[in-house]
Specification:
single chain, alpha+beta, three-stranded antiparallel sheet, elongated
Length: about 80
């Protein structure tokens, strides 16, 4: 019986730490803005982010259902 209570306590403590980690990590998260662009390359994706007035962005392409998507990762958005 003592082992069951100890195990329950450990699980509750682990759940608390997980919840705290999710809350704190979401406070500093960057925002990703994605749009389908053909062809998606470093150049076209960078142009898309600049035209949308994003500052300090990082670009990357992701495969989409029909067309690739250009994503602009904007820190502290």
């Amino acid at each position: 019986m003592a082992h069951a209570k100890k195990a329950t306590g450990v699980l509750l403590l682990a759940a608390l730490f997980m919840a705290m980690a999710m809350v704190f990590s979401s406070c500093n998260a960057a925002a990703d803005y994605c749009h389908a662009i053909v062809p998606c390359s470093d150049e076209t994706c960078s142009n898309y982010c600049q035209k949308n007035n994003f500052k300090n962005f990082q670009t990357y392409c992701t495969p989409g259902q029909y067309y690739p998507s250009c994503c602009c990762r904007v820190p502290d958005a």
